[in-house]
Write a structure and sequence with these properties.
2 domains; 4-stranded antiparallel sheet; 11 strands
Length: 155
């Protein structure tokens, strides 16, 4: 979803391959947790001179200060072991505000932030789970722009 046009460039800076779990997909004890976790793109790590541990969990700067932390979580439910989705699992990349500010300044860029809220109805065991689309709770999304000047705006 990157765009490279004259006068405009949209470039992703976080890698997240949590959808393709590879061998972990067949591990019944994995609880929906996959590897590797979300992490900065290589060009960000190089530009900002940050390094990580072998698990891609903690990212530190030149002063050994922690600037990012990648987290993944899941839940193993024996009763639902045959279901492919795990609504109790997830991942996130937490980044310090000072790092974001330094990154945007160093790259001379602004940051587009998309926030999505997806709610799912929890069905009882005796319900089929296949209801009309009218009953489906709509996903809500909002876009924000964090400028290199530090101001947050809605788009």
């Amino acid at each position: 979803m990157e765009i490279h046009e004259d006068g405009f460039e949209l470039k992703g800076w976080v890698l997240d391959h949590s959808d393709g779990r590879r061998l972990d997909e067949y591990d019944r004890w994995a609880g929906g947790v996959s590897f590797p976790p979300p992490r900065p793109a290589p060009f960000i790590a190089e530009q900002m001179r940050i390094e990580t541990d072998s698990d891609f969990r903690f990212w530190t700067d030149q002063n050994e200060g922690r600037v990012m932390e990648s987290q993944i979580w899941g839940y193993y439910d024996e009763a639902k072991r045959h279901e492919s989705s795990n609504p109790n699992g997830g991942s996130r990349l937490q980044v310090s505000a000072s790092f974001i500010s330094a990154m945007l300044d160093g790259l001379n860029r602004d940051l587009i932030i998309e926030v999505q809220i997806e709610r799912r109805r929890r069905y009882q065991p005796y319900e089929s789970g296949e209801k009309d689309d009218d009953e489906r709770i709509k996903t809500i999304a909002k876009l924000y722009l964090l400028g290199k000047d530090g101001k947050l705006r809605t788009i």
